[in-house]
Amino acid sequence: MSTVEAHPTLHTRVCDMFGCTYPIVQTGMGYVSDSALTKATTAAGGLGIIAGGMLSYDELKAAIEDVQAHTDNPFGVNMRADQPDIDKRVDLCISAGVKVASFALAPKQPLIEKLKNAGLAVVPSIGARRHAEKVAAWGVDAVIVQGGEGGGHTGAVPTSLLLPQVVDAVDIPVIAAGGYFDGRGLVSALAYGAEGIAMGTRFLLTSDSPVADAVKQVYLSKSVADTVVTLEIDGVPQRVLNAGTIGELKKSTGPRRVARAVRNAVAFRKISGTPWSAMVREGLAMKKSGELDWSQVIMAANAPMLYRSALVDGDPDLGVMATGQVVGLIDDIPSCAELIDRIVADATATLHRLGA
Q1: Residue 2: its pLDDT value, please?
Q2: Whole-structure pTM over 0.85, yes or no?
Q3: Among 104, 199, 256, 321, which is least packed by CB within 10 angstroms?
């Protein structure tokens, strides 16, 4: 735990709701936010979140047990509401005493109520004011608001415009994401009315992250202009490094794209052990939800293997690397404890300076 004496302003409703010391959230990044990164963040006083979307049920159970074996501090689990076994995963989180359930796409009201009744805080990520208003009406406890600077699936409105819109629209705690990496950013988010920040790329580039050193060095070499928002991964806008296979994906035609998606689906099924029946059900659920059309469902088969190639296999030339534009402002790889200490110290110094 940090020994930095934090400014009182840094204790927000998010700290009380999540049970963390500082209003700093490590997002649930697929293939990145494993138990090691989560427990390191949590032990340092932030809120660590296990990325459960790419894990099997048994892998998720093992990850939860690993975090709990190393820290008593509360942590979260990120889940996909459209997974075929989502009810089983929710029951696991409830029985294990997980504190926070986060979602990239908000779950429906019955699932929200089930989690809340069991004492979990439900925190979806949103990218538009109307989405924040909708999920707030459904009863979620807080929202993570990601602006267009953020990595992975993202929108077009920058954080500096989206954040005040959402803060003015809802009365639940708002956590700002997209472009944050230091204490000055935390203070700026608080000034807009947020009650904390969430960071992905900054936590990816820590010594506690499982990403291979060679891939981390690729990230560190990039500027703020070295990212691209593309539809080529799964048909939905994603911000990634302009590196690896992105150029090839942009050139691919419809038939080649479908062929690649099928190959990657076969490879992912073999590695993950996911039955074909479950994969088909998941595709149907994605289609039924209205979030994706059939062409996008087919393209979405690419995503797990494209990310796995870089983030798990450590091959930046063959994979895809999600990132925020903030990658161009990051130049080191501290531990989670060092990072959180630095952010808290910088934010405290900034608040004292403004107060003076």
Answers
A1: 58
A2: yes
A3: 256
